[in-house]
Structure formats: structure tokens, C-alpha cells
Amino acid sequence: MFFEGSEKKVEIITASTHGSLRLLGLDFWTQIVSLAKADIISVIDNQHCDAYLLSESSLFVWDNRIVMLTCGLSTLIDSLLALLEHIGVKNVAFVSYQRKNEYLAHLQASTFADDIARLRQYIPGKACRIGHLDSHHHFIFTSDTSLIAAQDKTSELLMYHISGPIAQYLTSTKQSVEQVCERLGLSTLFAGFNLDAHLFSPLGFSVNGIKDEQYFTIHITPQEQSSYVSVETNFDMADSDNPVAAQLLALLQPISWDSIGFNVPVIAANQPKNICLAHCTYPIEQNYQVYFGHFQQLGTEILNPELM
Amino acid sequence: MFFEGSEKKVEIITASTHGSLRLLGLDFWTQIVSLAKADIISVIDNQHCDAYLLSESSLFVWDNRIVMLTCGLSTLIDSLLALLEHIGVKNVAFVSYQRKNEYLAHLQASTFADDIARLRQYIPGKACRIGHLDSHHHFIFTSDTSLIAAQDKTSELLMYHISGPIAQYLTSTKQSVEQVCERLGLSTLFAGFNLDAHLFSPLGFSVNGIKDEQYFTIHITPQEQSSYVSVETNFDMADSDNPVAAQLLALLQPISWDSIGFNVPVIAANQPKNICLAHCTYPIEQNYQVYFGHFQQLGTEILNPELM
């Protein structure tokens, strides 16, 4: 009953010399997604964005931007290299590639170091690890490209070992998409978003949401001993009128969580009561900052030995 | 500049049907150690014990007991299986086999699950993981043998990311064995022990100590970003007259540490100021308890991104 929830993530911004990425069409994206060992399950769109729900997470395509996340044993680097081949590096304004610490890193097809060695054969860039290897950490590569979108804001909230009634519901046998959405309060947290949600068998829940140029995606791996929930958006999750991150933390009660912000400071929350064990501000360029914070519930957890 | 400090550990207790393990001789132990991809560097002995300092940690041999620890990319399971073949499972009263979480688990020749699948072909036993996969954790196998040494007491203190003047000295270019022993205060902490200490090139320090039937061993991997110090002993490290664990924690100022006790409760310490993030009591038999505690310095660490 193990599933590796933690994601690899790619973002590509194309230069004005390149046509709209949305015109590349379903067959093209199906092929790109298959290179990562994933499938397209469904798609929603609006005037700005095509949002694909994948068997392993999500793909968002705007006219000049792609965000793709894949979890499990997916090989996202293969999708990224194929995209760079197709788009042409000269038409690329910016690339970032991330991996989070995995629960079982030895099962992955490659390490982050392997991936960036291949990536650097296409495009030069800076790469680093933020966080200790024996704790939560985050690998990030960003291309050395002059055109950096300083307006680019993304927040990621990564929750580990969720608990409480919703965590229990998410491992129960009789779930429905509607009930999960309702219990998470998605229609309030993300009012006005068009949603595309899916329950996986035996367990797991994914949802994409789009509203104008805003997007969010939530992926839940509820498996006991290795539960993981990721939330990613270009929406302000710390907005005082609608503190999405704080509300999801209070609902899902993780033992520990990370907040990663691109040009958005790390999100603090009051519930569950917590301590920030470690944080970092990492300047990639003058106007482009990566923030990382690793939080842990205050109090001592009583561990249950897992028999093997 | 990476070295995997975290150890695998074997303990074997032989039944009274078996002769003294100390009579097996240097050639035998050299061969056993080589199966783990390690070498014997030196040996000290007393009336009760032969203590071998290894290129990857330590081996202690008493008449009816072996404790062997190996770090790096060593394959301790191969030594253990060869020992079981030689001794004969019918002459074995008890076996335990442990692994700690590794910094870079994917570099290891095998996983704990791989190892115990092989071990269980020789001897049945219980195995479990204590601690979450995304945090400090500890794997342990113990044989299903009727003869359990309830008097068997062992304390392990595992320190991660040491800091302060001694940590700095341990990464400096001009060290001496004498200076390391003096700065650690070994002659006071372990008064009356016969010591065998070694400095490794480019970095690293190991010491074995024996006094009557007591032993201790300290292994220091001081490399920045992946520093690790282990202390293991059958001596009472929480003794109020000589609180060895508390004194070593105060000297080495780790960011986080684990305390593992076999029939010895987890050791608490005041300095550095800390929080117990998680703990566990794991009963193997009625009179045999494993204690695990994972501690972290209070306060927020400011992380330095490590360029790749």
C-alpha cells in the first residue's frame, strides 16, 4: 500500500518567437505525457489555459507557459527534454525543474543529479538542494536565461502524514468525488474555479482548477505511513480574506509540511501548532526569489513501528 | 566530499553449545570483515573482548557475543550470513540486525527489505521500521529465538549536522588523534578504558574503547552538509555522575539526533535546547524493549542551498 506522492515539476516559459503552445494539440500532449510514464485522464479549458488531469498528477498549458507535475515513478525529465527538442532552446525564455525529497528515493528511475546532467546538455542553468538530506529537502534547477518573468508567482504547500477526520475519510472504501470536494471545501476555497476532480483506485484524489489565468491543483496520496498532499497554485494562498493554505492545514492536520514560494514568501499558519525547523531564501536572479520553509507540528509524536 | 556515516549493525549471541568466538582468530575475522567490504585497521583486547577498529567502523568479539558496525557502502549482511553459516543457526541464541536511515540510500548495494529477505532464509525473526520514511528512522530485525538476553543493554546516540568549535576542528587540515581525543574529553568521559583511535584521510575519526566487559565506540564523519557522529556503548550514558551522552551533545551541538536504547530508556539532554519530535517503545519480548527517540534543536535553522 505504498505510493510515492512527491512530485517532480517542470515549468517552461516560451519566448515571443514561439507560437502558442495550446495549438500543439491533444496528440502532442498525449505523447509528451506518455514519455513521463503517465496518461491524460481528462481535460478542462478556458480562454487562457488547458488543464490536463494525469494518471500521475497534472499538466497546465497556456499560450506561452507549461507547468507539468508528475508523481509516482514517473520520468518527467524525459518529457522535459522532448519538449525542449520540439520547442527549440532558442525559443525558450525560462525553464525550471524541481524534485522534492521522495519517501523511497531508491525506487526512482534517476536521481536529480542524473536528471540535470542530461538537462544541462540542452540548456545551462543553476541547480541546488535546499534542506538537509536527512530531512525534507527540495532540488531546483533554473535556466541561465536573461528573460526571467519576475511577475511569476507560485506557491506550493506539501503536507506529510495527514491526520483527523478527512484523512480517515480519504482512506475509507466508500468515497465519492463530490464528498471529497465538499469536505475539503473546494467551492469556498476556490470560488469561481472550474474544477476537474478524480478519485483513483485503490486510493488517491486529484483535482485541477482554473479561473481566468489562475490555476490550482491538489493531489492527495492518503496511504497510511506515507500520506502526502500537495497544493500548488498561482493564486495567493495567504490572502487574509481567504487563507487557503491555513484552512487546508487545519483540515488535513499534517505532522509536517513544507512551503515553497516563487516570488511569494513562505506561508505561516497557526493550526496545527507548529515550529519552523528550517527555512531559506534563495535568490535566483535579482527579482526572482525562491523561499523554502519546513514546518513540524509542536509536540511529540508517538510512533507506531511498521512491521516488515 | 560525501561519506555515508550511518551504520548497519549486527549483534549475535551464541548458545552455550558453541565454543568461544574469540578463538576463531584474526584470519577468520579478516575474512568476515572483508565480506562487508571493510578492512581491519587495528585491534586491542582485554580479558573479555577483542575490539577491532575497521576501515568502516568496528567489530567487537566476546566469547559468546559479536557486535559489528559498518558504515559507507559496506555490505554487512554478507558478513552476517557468513557468520551464521559458520556458527550454525542451531548454535545461535539471538541475532539482531539494524540499519539507520541513510543520507543517500539509493547508493547502497541493498535495502533493509532486501537484507532481511536473505536473512530470513537462515533464521526467522520480526522486523520493523520505527520512524517515518521522510524523517529519521531505524530498521531492526530480531530473531525469533527463545533465549533472549534480558540483561543486554545497549545505548546508541546518533548525531546529525554537528556544529561549533569541535565540529570545525574535525574538518580542519591539521588534526591529530591526541587532539581529537582531548577535545572530546574521552579520558574523562570514559575513564579507565583502553582506547584505540584512528584519523582517516581526508576526514573522519574512529575510536574503540574497552574496560572489562564494557565497550564504547565513536565514529565521526565530519563532512559539511552530511556530518554524522555515532556513539554506541553498553556503558550507562545517562549516569548522573558521568552523563556521557549529554556531554557529547553539548560538545558537538548537532542540529538533530536520535537515541536508541535496548533495555535502556531514551536519553534526554538539556543542551542543545531541543524538542523530542517523535518517540517509540517497541517490545520485542516481554523483557526486551527497544526505545527510539528523535530530537531536534529548538529554533529555526537558516539553510544554505547546496549548489549542484
Structure description:
The structure is a homodimer of 308-residue chains. With 308 residues, chain A is of the alpha+beta class. Chain A has one domain (8-297): 4-Layer Sandwich (S-adenosylmethionine decarboxylase), CATH 3.60.90. Helix content of chain A is 19%, strand content 39%. Chain A has seven helices and 18 strands. In chain A, the strands form two sheets. Chain A has an eight-stranded antiparallel sheet, covered by helices on one side. In chain A, strands 10-11-12-13-9-14-16-15 form an eight-stranded antiparallel sheet, with helices on one face. In chain A, helix 1 (25-35) crosses helix 2 (76-87). The longest helix of chain A has 12 residues, at 76-87. Chain A is globular. Chain A starts with 7 loop residues before the first strand and ends with a strand. The mean pLDDT of chain A is 94. At the A-B interface, helix 3, strand 7, strand 15, strand 17 and strand 18 of A face helix 3, strand 7, strand 15, strand 17 and strand 18 of B. Strand 18 (306-307) of chain A pairs antiparallel with strand 7 (125-130) of chain B. Chains A, B: This is S-adenosylmethionine decarboxylase SpeD. Chains A, B: InterPro entries: AdoMetDC-like, S-AdoMet_deCO2ase_core, S-AdoMet_deCO2ase_CS.
